[in-house]
Amino acid sequence: MARLRLGPLLRYVDGSSATVWVEASRPCTAEVRCADGAGGETRTFQIAGHHYALVPVTGLIPGTSTAYEVRLDGTTVWPLPGSPFPPSLIHAPAYDHAPVRVAFGSCRWAAPPADEKDPVGPDALDTLAARLASDPGAERPDVLVLLGDQVYADETSNATRRWLAARRDLKDPPGNEVADYEEYTRLYYESWLDPEVRWLLSTVPSCMIFDDHDVIDDWNTSAAWLADMRATPWWRERLLSGLMSYWVHQHLGNLPPERLAADPLYAAVRATPDGTDVLRTFAAEADANPTSVRWSYRRDFGRVRLLMIDTRAARVLDETDRAMLAPGEHAWLREQVLEGRGADAAGTAGGRPDAVVAASGASDEARTAPGAPPPVSAAQGSPDSMAKASARPADGGTSGEPGGPPARSAEGHAATARTPYDHLLIGTSLPWLLPHLVHDAEAWNAALCRGERGPRWARFGEDLRRRADLEHWSAFPASFDALASLIAEVGSGPEAPATVCVLSGDVHHAYIAEPSWPQGASAPDARVLQLTCSPVHNSIPMSIKLGFHFGWSRVGRALGRRFAGHGGVPRPPIDWRRTGGPWFGNQLMTLTLRGRSARLRLDQARVEKGGGARLRTVVESELAP
């Protein structure tokens, strides 16, 4: 009999359909059956001896909630027998005049077992689950946006280290870090079998994107770093396993049912009794030629647009032309923010309702000016692989068949595809706006590494970049400026949204920053905000607290300008100020968006005097009336 090994995770939901992700113990038919008659079923697919299914659910009624159960070969496996939690629900949104609530955060170590002391304090996801489970009428998120470091491949728990030690000799590299796909599955079991988190993810839809620790700290920080990693004997298996496990556990659920139905990689994996080799070939191509895959994607929630962008695998690492987003990736981002805005849409997207474009190919021609050589990408593929990419048509390939037709989906929003949205959310694991000292130090470091002060300073800069994690948007000055320009463009004019919010994590604290454009520049009409929230559950060293407090200070700002002067770094095209925080703790931010109004709430997980933990609201503010 098939057993439920992991899940269910409620991933995509719209007014009439949903997807539910599960892992089973053996090949079987996975079925989701809803109390109101909606449902769906599919056969599992196999990767590295594990059996997964992403079950498409149809027949949902907009504006209603329905309980569901999961069956494997006809046997009910969810809810678990004797579960203390309420039934898992699918809420099909109507989006008429109802608010859209977006909870977000990043950086989550798996919580230890209930009988062990938690060294980093209560988990924000655990406490959110407890709040919702204890009060079924409580305000609940419409989507949970997880902005990276959902698992830590390079910082494993004591329990996982014991499991690894029973499997192999930890004296051999990579030591107590994960080495292959099977070891990645252990991380997901540890994280998602937490009872509270398991129930929460079964009833609140989620969007996910990776950051560095999903693979390794400082992933793709520089061309020199990548060359050093590729010289190690264990790196290739680690990277391919990381990309494969991310595709299975996180990426697939980001996509709507119709996008999945048209995806050739998904079809190929499901068409064979064992999809391991198919998926591994895809991961190897993604490593050799990042332009063969797009991990970024778009989701529309009524009149709220969310763009989740890949700031790790899509980088250009050539020191003379570094970019957080390769040209084709930035062009995709611009197309998505402008699509649906009258003449702008016709000029950038052909008026097509591209509500989701994800894991689809984009050739080097699409990322490079005609006749120019392809950029040195994060993967720094071989000349042969670059040549093959340059020979592809401009639309590129899909996630499974490089060179095939582009995969696009309307995600059920064709009726509103050409109307403006009220709020734009840009999800990037790495903050765009940082404390001024950190921003200037990263820009200075980038100048050193580029050779502005000579070879000795360049060597010093590369060493410092790795030691101090100097790799945010400010370490890619041209990309920082380009994002500022794009935000000003999309935030201006009669069709401008009320807010443009950049959602980020990574830096183990929370803050709000607001940019301003110089007098005489074209400033946006929309309110623009950097909203940073991290960690969900992780350590917060005193050095981080002191460093970021100082980074926002006037003295820190003056010191940053001295760094910038030494590197010959010009002032950025915008200024910004911190308008909230810094806040330290395990925490989540929640945006409530209704019409053109927006409110922000920050909740922290706090230990109660009598024991236990709960979410406490630290701040709540109006962003747009």
Record the SSE blueprint.
Elements: E1 4-13, E2 17-24, E3 29-34, E4 39-43, E5 45-47, E6 50-58, E7 64-72, E8 75-78, E9 89-92, E10 100-105, H1 124-134, E11 143-146, H2 158-167, H3 181-192, H4 195-203, E12 206-208, H5 223-230, H6 235-251, H7 257-261, H8 264-271, H9 276-288, E13 297-301, E14 304-309, H10 327-338, H11 343-348, H12 364-367, H13 383-390, E15 423-428, H14 436-449, H15 455-468, H16 477-490, E16 499-504, E17 510-516, E18 527-532, H17 542-551, H18 554-567, E19 575-583, E20 587-594, E21 597-607, E22 613-624
Parallel strand pairs: 10-11, 11-12, 14-15, 15-16, 16-18
Antiparallel strand pairs: 1-2, 2-6, 3-4, 3-7, 5-6, 7-8, 7-9, 10-20, 13-14, 17-18, 17-19, 20-21, 21-22
Helix pairs in contact: 1-4, 3-6, 6-9, 14-15, 14-18
How is the main sheet built?
A: 7 strands, mixed
Helix count, DSSP H or I runs of 4 or more residues: 18
Strand content: 15-25%
Morphology: globular
Provide the helix percentage: 25-40%
Physical arrangement of strands within the biggest beta sheet: 13-14-15-16-18-17-19
Query: Low-confidence parts lasting 5 or more residues at pLDDT below 50?
Result: 344-376, 379-418
The residue-averaged pLDDT reads 89
Any idea what the radius of gyration is? 23 Å
Amino- and carboxy-terminal Cα gap:
55 Å
Structural class: alpha+beta
* Quantity of strands, as a count: 22
What can you see in these coordinates?
- Helix content is 30%, strand content 24%.
- The chain has a seven-stranded mixed beta sheet with strand order 13-14-15-16-18-17-19, covered by helices on one side. A six-stranded mixed beta sheet has the order 12-11-10-20-21-22. Strands 3, 4, 7, 8 and 9 form a five-stranded antiparallel beta sheet that branches.
- About 12% of the residues have low confidence.
- With 625 residues, it is of the alpha+beta class.
- The protein contains 18 helices and 22 strands.
- This is Alkaline phosphatase D family protein.
